[in-house]
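Homework help thread (please don't just give me the answer)

Our assignment gives two proteins as sequence + structure token strings and asks us to describe the second one. The first is just a warm-up. Here they are:
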Amino acid sequence: MTDLQDTQITWQQDPLFAGLESVTDPGAPECSLDLAWSPAVAVCAGPVAYNVYRSRAAGFEPGPGNLIAAAVSGTSFADLYVLPGSTYYYVVRAQDTSNGAEEGNTVERAGVTAGESAVLWEDDLEGGNLGWEFALGSPPATAGGFVIGDPVGTVSNYGAPSQPEDDHTPAA
């Protein structure tokens, strides 16, 4: 007896990957989250790279709009662009770089940042010159002067006022 039915064979092209294993806060003073996973196994020629997706909402659909890192070569990633006290959700997917096939796992892990925001420079612009020294230029100007609190109006790139004009009445 002969089996005359057609048999269709399909080959798996995407890597075998269990997904993201952990998201941790490294405890550094600045905000960041560390992601880690076990290596994927390429079923084609390989090598394997990883795509990292992030959202502020649980249950998100990974896609181009929330891809934060593509073609990561190792099994870890540090997300340095997070806000303090915020929860982030991540999915990591493996991609066979020889054929572009990305596997579709939906393993989602969450992490909460505990670091503080770094203040690089702060000024309330109301407390005087705060140690700044003002000069009339080099060589010194022969007329005029600079008076703290006497602003000159400025405009934005689009021509809208961004700082109002002062009437330039000399300070008493």
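The one we have to describe:
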Amino acid sequence: MGDNSAQVVIVGAGHAGGSVAAFLRQYGWQGPVTLLGAEPTPPYQRPPLSKAWLKGEGEFADLLLRPAGFYQANRIDLRLSCRVTAIDRSARTVNLASGEHVAYEHLILATGCHARALRIPGRELAGTFELRTLADADRLRTVLRPGALIAIIGAGYIGLEVAASARALGAEVVVIERESRVLPRVASVPLGEFFQRRHTEAGVRIILNAAVEAFEGPVGHGNEPENVSWFFVDPDDYRLEIEARYPTQQQAAAVVARGKEGRNAHMGLYGGDDVKKGNGR
């Protein structure tokens, strides 16, 4: 990226964004580094959210990619709970929802992807969950208790991990999968059969070849009945459409149109996969 004293702004304080900021310092970048994150939490690991964290095991510090004091000690301006609304490529500024404008010379988009909501009737009912963020996991684990009935839509890795965690906490679990076997998009048939057998032996009921068309139940506002069914939607493995979380569709399209070096046609703008591949250095 040329002059290592230039201002770098990273949009997205997840695993990729946090790692980029750390590696910039590790490899001698001397210029200002600003890391912008929409969540209120410093960069953390997501895989434990469906396993140890969901079961109430481990400490918050164990989730963090790096200790809380790392960013200040390494002159990384970590800004949390701030949302980017637009990128002004002419002025080379990032616009925040607060109205602030953050100047950059090099801009790295490391926003990751998220699952679009499952658009079926009843999705707004109380007791429906998705799992991507720490806040999602904290909400979900409040209902994982002995005797609770948990219906998980999607028998991918995350769905099965949540099923195992829920059973470990004493919940009754049913997994609903639209395909003819578990892990249909991510594992071989023998491996899928192995996991299906293990989960069945653990008491998980698995329903295959079943597409969910709607949720039905009481609309609650925090006062749900005792025998409510809780629905967890597996965002990664239920064939939901995945979309890049760039600030605007225009910016997303701009990042796709990269030059030969992996950089955007607008100099100084990089996507997360460019960083991973080391392009544009």
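TA reply:
I won't write it for you, but here's a hint about the kind of observation we're looking for: The helical segments are 15-26, 60-63, 70-73, 134-141, 157-168, 189-201, 249-256, 272-277.
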